[in-house]
From TrEMBL, chains A, B:
Residues of the Amidohydrolase-related domain: 49-418
Keywords attached to this entry: Hydrolase
Coiled-coil blocks: none
The protein's name in its UniProt record: Amidohydrolase
Keyword Hydrolase attributed: yes
Keyword Hydrolase: yes
Matching Pfam families: Amidohydro_1
UniProt cross-references to SUPFAM superfamilies, sorted A to Z: Composite domain of metallo-dependent hydrolases (SSF51338), Metallo-dependent hydrolases (SSF51556)
Domain of life per record: Bacteria
Amino acid sequence: MTFTIQNVLIATDDDYITTDVQIVDGKIAAIAPNLDVVGTTIDGKHKLLLPGFVNAHTHSSEMWQRGGISVFPLELWLAELYDSAPVDIEKVYLSALGTAVETLLSGGTSVVDHLVLIPGEELETIASAVRAYKEVGIRAFIAPLIQDESLTAGLPSGESTQTHEPFFRSTSDTLELVEEAVRRFHRPDEGISILVAPTGIQLCTDALFEGCIELSDRYNLCRHSHLLETKAQEKLAQEKYGCTAVTHLQRIGFLSDRTSLAHCVWLNDADITILAETQSTVVHNPLSNLRLGSGIAPILKYRQAGVNVTFGCDGASSNDSQDLLEAIKIGSILHNVTDFDYRYWISPRQAIEMASLGAAKGLNLADKLGSIGIGKQADLVLYDLTNLSLIPRTDPIALLVLGRPTNVVDSAWVNGKQIIANGQVTTINVDKLREELFNLSEWVTKRPSETVAQFELHYRTVMGLSE
Amino acid sequence: MTFTIQNVLIATDDDYITTDVQIVDGKIAAIAPNLDVVGTTIDGKHKLLLPGFVNAHTHSSEMWQRGGISVFPLELWLAELYDSAPVDIEKVYLSALGTAVETLLSGGTSVVDHLVLIPGEELETIASAVRAYKEVGIRAFIAPLIQDESLTAGLPSGESTQTHEPFFRSTSDTLELVEEAVRRFHRPDEGISILVAPTGIQLCTDALFEGCIELSDRYNLCRHSHLLETKAQEKLAQEKYGCTAVTHLQRIGFLSDRTSLAHCVWLNDADITILAETQSTVVHNPLSNLRLGSGIAPILKYRQAGVNVTFGCDGASSNDSQDLLEAIKIGSILHNVTDFDYRYWISPRQAIEMASLGAAKGLNLADKLGSIGIGKQADLVLYDLTNLSLIPRTDPIALLVLGRPTNVVDSAWVNGKQIIANGQVTTINVDKLREELFNLSEWVTKRPSETVAQFELHYRTVMGLSE
């Protein structure tokens, strides 16, 4: 927890300096050249030190289905996903390990896991993920994914009259479950936080949102939700509320400076103003938005309106990776095609700040995380600048963001504890993990989905697609 | 050149089989289970065999500037690029090696290098790239980048009257240079082909295009060019020809079934019909198009119109990587946001075919390359399906295309010669290359560009951007 990184490159406002960085008891204690060595010495030569990034929206257990779900829009993709979701607590543990490892190896030191709960074993699911994240040592924000309406309720009705099965668990039981999870697992000082996390307006009643707000206020919890990922959800919000989803969420009080909202693709200008005013955070998941054809989130507009934005990989079935550097790259350059004026484009340095400090803000931790400054927690990543994918030498941060870095993370620390050294995860046996993931899965190449068959005609009709 | 891969997974029309593949004298001789072993035995267990992909558009020497050019639209980016382009023959050699290695390690076995020529040392530049590609053993299509107009001529004039310096080399000298390159270096049977490659309508006269057509016909050479990468080029074509660039190129006879055209972002429906009728090939460079804000090429329209499409990384200053699997992934999923009807979206299997057979068609080699079939050249890649980035097991090709595979290429062969074994390039010393690239470069973090300063006001005016 106490160490000194010598002769390392760090970014200043618009340049770089070579310096030493002292970490004492998990916090950054000094930044200056030629510091006295305290604790272990780390050689920073030809290395770049950055604050750890946050994989600010994912669903870890989707790792089991990555590569396995058809190229579909969200609503049909989700139907297929439900048909093959893992229902085994041990698998949840392994995919949380896998998600943590891929996040760490691509510059992340924290993960926000919007965790799919196994019905009837909800607390066991959370316990399993907690165990994995503690073992790896990544900082984890576990957002148990809750809903109180059935999957079919997530589609707009259009002209038709739809009836839906009631959800198998009551709203109050669901809220009780979250509260129990908070009591058992919410230990921010130990690197595990619980978030209240209704899946989104498409599958949640106001009662569920309001219960979450109450828990959030009572236990000082951050709030997390999907928001307007697809055009279908935009239609649904109008049917359900007679106004936009953002207007409705503001009215019921869900939006706040500790609320982070995944996707935010289908917002209008008034909605954007509301996000800015409420200081809500947008979690941009560019790869998932492309893979599912959801659309391009208006990220440049968010930034111009003063909305805080950060990045997530989203679950590994809609991406199908947990490479945070990939999400940062695509989440930056994608928007250059949405505005001809390049003065608004996201620079590599801005992207890095969004991925670190932007995420910390959304998790109400900007005073503790997200930048390299005296007194901040040592969630740090050291990049090897001699790696083939980062040479020839030019601008280190531009190479990291605009290139395709592979095997570049030399070291990573969470709260001052070293999790990666010499490019290898030190806390768990990754080869063993790899074997288990391999052995517990099988090649699946055909995937007829009953749920998709039930949904597809209605989906095409309501979305105005030909039969 | 003769070997047998045993128990390897290969793709059938809509599934996979485990089989043996026999390669004799550089060609695929048999595909069936339990074949007699000829030559070396390769263990294919838990591995996927695919045809090698083609990095169908790049500029190798841009590797020296990757991460080094501002986040700008093409025209300003190009101005900055020109200011710092390498002018050292040895650097051309090293960046060709680097481009080849990154291409090979991401599934490519061929590269189309639209090679920037050092003024006054044009043939030496080509010789240097040829030497590098022969040493590595990648199949190379060298397309010497030629023009006969000055950089400023590449911008539309708008309302103003612009005059441009004449280009330093005459059209006839330029054509003579290409012909000499063909005589010296065009050896398709040895894996090196020369293409005629005017940079594009923005910087080339009709005389240059027509000279290239003549050389192409006389020496049986493929044709390559940039086409309508930016909106500025679309405007310029109207100023220059009074019609679209595609109409003009068709009239002068440049389009053909051995013509490949990089970018093709700003085409209208009539242009697309012309590309289909002339059997031209579109080389899609999705990452460069995003990075430079050029736009999203209408790839789904091309496919519906029957236009052949393949993928390129583009030069490493506009991407800034040569990871072909990244280009294939983004070049597939990007288009899901351009059409709500998911039935037109590119499936992972279609993407693989575009990257292999699609490229072979554009290079007039579909009979020899681009698929795994009896009698085809053995340009093959073997992927390790036990790699962390490709597990848990689901659908191998979907994992490869939709995931973020790293370190997954186990082996690669070009014309039956093994270039990668156990994940390592066997033909050159990559660590030495890495050292040289590192030592011959330096961190560059400030980059005021004189040329940009000259261009920017005119660019903003003509593109309708505020001052």
